[in-house]
Amino acid sequence: MFASAVSNPLDMSVRQQLRTQAPGAKANAFWTVGMQMARSEGVMSLMNGFTASMLREVTYSGLRMGTYEYFKDSIHGLSAGTLTTDGLTLKVLAATVAATLGSAVANPTDLVKVRMQAYYPDGSPYRNTRHAFATVWREGAGAGAQTFAGGVRALYRGTDATTIRGVVLSVSQICSYDQIKQSLKQRGVMEEGLPLHFTASMFAGFICSVTSNPVDVVKVRVMNDKERQFKGVSDCVKTIMRNEGPMAFYKGFGMCWARLGAHTVLSFVAFERLRTLFGIAPM
Questions:
Q1: How far is 46 from 6, CA to CA, in rounded Å?
Q2: Which domain of life does the UniProt lineage start with (predicted)?
Q3: N or C: which end of the chain has fewer CB within 10 A?
Q4: CA 199 to CA 206: how far, in whole Å?
């Protein structure tokens, strides 16, 4: 939550990823988007979706980071020793299971966060986070017995894209941090401590930004698709490729890297500090 609070203003990458101008357009740089937001909506617009972001971190990051080592130990036990604790395969499997769980549970908070951070020419239709949740619920709610089911489906729109993104990000982020940290220690380059945590998380932040940005673009487009223009994730991918070109999948990369880089460093440094305070061995 601390990492997300610090990096929330950098989440303007959502605005960049939602823009659908033709290939080659130059008015989508993150500083351009940020200045436009500050001038037209006020500086506090950079904190849009803050409460939803905090709720998302409690569930998504809490589950994916909190259960990673549990699944790592469990899968190692189930493998009867065929998977080594230092091997990358075990780390990837554990991160995949943990991220799938976290992403699926946290989807409603992620959807509301994206909606609240999107641009609305006539002003945001959401008064606050609670109102945003209620509005999304009503979008999918039908009549009679379908009201509950429809509301739940609306809140879980884009779960497939969210889960794919969560798995891609977590595997590249958690596994790269774990693997880089392990390699630096084994080679005697660095010892356990803050410098090692900072260095490993810096590399992990860049790696997960590169791998997750394309999936992130698709995810925010599907989640913000109130008119149901896309039939699903694959249709969204085809539409972006056809109308905007392949580089559209890296819209907002600069800000994505700045945000995810800062978020990754703060997350792992805080995570390792908390483990030390509670007498838990480092990751």
A1: 11
A2: Eukaryota
A3: N
A4: 11
Q: What per-residue string of b and e applies to 222-243 under the rule 16 or more CB within 10 Å gives b?
A: bbbeeeeebeebeebbebbeee
Helices (H) and strands (E) in the chain, counts: 13, 0
Task: Report the distance separating Cα 105 and Cα 31, nearest Å.
Answer: 33
Reported CATH class of domain 2-277: mainly alpha
Could you give the count of Cα atoms lying within 13 Å of 150 in the half-sphere of its Cβ?
12
Cβ atoms of 43 and 152 closer than 8 Å: no
Three-state secondary structure call for residue 161: helix
At 267 the three-state DSSP class reads helix
Residue matched to tokens 């033709």 = 22
Report pLDDT for 21: 44
Query: Along the 283 residues of the chain, how does pLDDT read in single tens digits?
Result: 888 888 877 766 555 566 544 444 455 555 566 666 667 777 777 777 888 889 999 999 999 999 999 999 999 999 988 999 889 999 999 999 999 999 999 999 989 988 887 777 788 888 899 999 998 888 877 644 467 778 888 899 888 888 988 899 899 999 999 999 999 999 999 999 999 999 999 999 999 999 988 888 888 788 777 778 888 888 989 998 999 888 888 887 877 788 888 999 999 999 999 999 999 999 8
DSSP classification of residue 125: S
Domain edges within the chain = 2-277
